Amino acid sequence: MDRTESLPAQTLPPGTGPTDPGSVLLPGHDVPLGRYTTVRRLLPQRQRRMVGAWCFVDHFGPDDVADRPGMEVPPHPHTGLQTVTWLLDGEILHRDSLGNVQPIRPGQLNVMTSGRGIAHSERSPLVHPPLMHGVQLWVALPDPARAGDPAFAHHADLPRFRAGDLDVTLLVGDLGGERSPAVVHTPLVGAQIEVRGPAPAALPLRPDFEYGLLAMSGAAECDGTALAPGALLYLGLGRSTLTLRAEPGTRLLLLGGTPFEEPLVMWWNFVGRSHDEVVTAREDWTAGRRFGVVADDAAPPLPAPALPTTRLKARDRGGDVRG
């Protein structure tokens, strides 16, 4: 997914993560994606730039696309990250420079690992469902994975379990005694929670993880904070249990991981470690080097925006949350 918004670079120095299990509500803001789609960008924000290695969160829909093209994102590059795509409604066709052409539908998971460089496009098929609703997330890759080979995986079947009145689908990592088949490179978890009953419910958490809870549909309350669709509640470190109350049918996305300790620079579609590394990635994309050609997509590739006139500067991880 192309970061069409021109945000400042974000460099995250080691050891700047939160230490307490406080919480902060991140409402997000609207960003145009391609020609026809608007997403709510929930990470990065000034208050919080990461949750574990999750460094980018876009929530889109539900949108009525019955008489519209739906998602149209032409070929664009990535470095130093994994994209994780999860749909609640609709269908998107993924194409990449490794030759993969893969439709993704609700309940399935796409994980693309850029390594040192990959290009892809994301489009709704010509004939597509009337609604589109989902998330795309980025995971920052640590050394040495970020310099490794690119890869792509599609998971049509994921672990599912019941915890009281919660139906949990495990996207990545470990939770509730289950393990996702998706390959990640830092301690990480991502899970969809669907609420089946009105009673308060709880899930076990790892105190060494920091967590965020994204409301995708319905209404929920956690830590005394009401969550409306499209809002992300940052939960911090030190929690052993997630307790929430929600309307039946509510769908939430739980994200967590150990704080990412490596320096990090994010600009456009590149995740790197320095200004010079990002400059080189941009030059390679503009010159047609490194990233390859997206399979079965004749559209012109997206041009990289102009770099800032000053060097990409270090920024902290985000406001520490003190309970």
TrEMBL record:
<dbReference type="InterPro" id="IPR003829">
    <property type="entry name" value="Pirin_N_dom"/>
</dbReference>
<feature type="region of interest" description="Disordered">
    <location>
        <begin position="1"/>
        <end position="29"/>
    </location>
</feature>
<dbReference type="Pfam" id="PF02678">
    <property type="entry name" value="Pirin"/>
</dbReference>
<dbReference type="Pfam" id="PF05726">
    <property type="entry name" value="Pirin_C"/>
</dbReference>
<keyword id="KW-0408">Iron</keyword>
<dbReference type="InterPro" id="IPR008778">
    <property type="entry name" value="Pirin_C_dom"/>
</dbReference>
<feature type="binding site">
    <location>
        <position position="120"/>
    </location>
    <ligand>
        <name>Fe cation</name>
    </ligand>
</feature>
<feature type="binding site">
    <location>
        <position position="78"/>
    </location>
    <ligand>
        <name>Fe cation</name>
    </ligand>
</feature>
<dbReference type="InterPro" id="IPR012093">
    <property type="entry name" value="Pirin"/>
</dbReference>
<protein>
    <recommendedName>
        <fullName>Pirin</fullName>
    </recommendedName>
</protein>
<comment type="similarity">
    <text>Belongs to the pirin family.</text>
</comment>
<feature type="binding site">
    <location>
        <position position="76"/>
    </location>
    <ligand>
        <name>Fe cation</name>
    </ligand>
</feature>
<feature type="domain" description="Pirin N-terminal">
    <location>
        <begin position="38"/>
        <end position="139"/>
    </location>
</feature>
<feature type="binding site">
    <location>
        <position position="122"/>
    </location>
    <ligand>
        <name>Fe cation</name>
    </ligand>
</feature>
<feature type="compositionally biased region" description="Basic and acidic residues">
    <location>
        <begin position="313"/>
        <end position="323"/>
    </location>
</feature>
<keyword id="KW-0479">Metal-binding</keyword>
<dbReference type="InterPro" id="IPR014710">
    <property type="entry name" value="RmlC-like_jellyroll"/>
</dbReference>
<feature type="domain" description="Pirin C-terminal">
    <location>
        <begin position="199"/>
        <end position="289"/>
    </location>
</feature>
<dbReference type="GO" id="GO:0046872">
    <property type="term" value="F:metal ion binding"/>
</dbReference>
<dbReference type="InterPro" id="IPR011051">
    <property type="entry name" value="RmlC_Cupin_sf"/>
</dbReference>
<feature type="region of interest" description="Disordered">
    <location>
        <begin position="300"/>
        <end position="323"/>
    </location>
</feature>
<feature type="compositionally biased region" description="Low complexity">
    <location>
        <begin position="12"/>
        <end position="22"/>
    </location>
</feature>
